[in-house]
Amino acid sequence: MKSDQDLAQLQVEISKLSSTIDQLQSGQGPVNPPLQLCQCPVSQCSTQCSTPPGCSPFVPDYNIPLLAPGGGNTNPTMLQNLGPLAGLIGTWVSQRNNGFNVMPLPQATAPNGFILKNHFYYEVVTFSAIQGKVTNRGGLDEQDSYTLFYEQRVFFSDGVQANTLVHAENGAWLNMIKAPQGQGPLDTQPNIPSPPAPNPIPPQDPALEIVKQVSVPHGTSILANGHQRTFDGAPAIPNVNTLPIDAPPAFAAPYGTDIPSNPNINPNIVLQDALTALGHQGVHVVRTHELSVDTGNHGNASNVPFLKQHIEVTQFANTLWLEELSNGHLMLQYSQNISLKFPQPDGKSYIFPHITANTLTKVQ
Question: Which pTM does this prediction carry?
Answer without folding.
Answer: 0.80
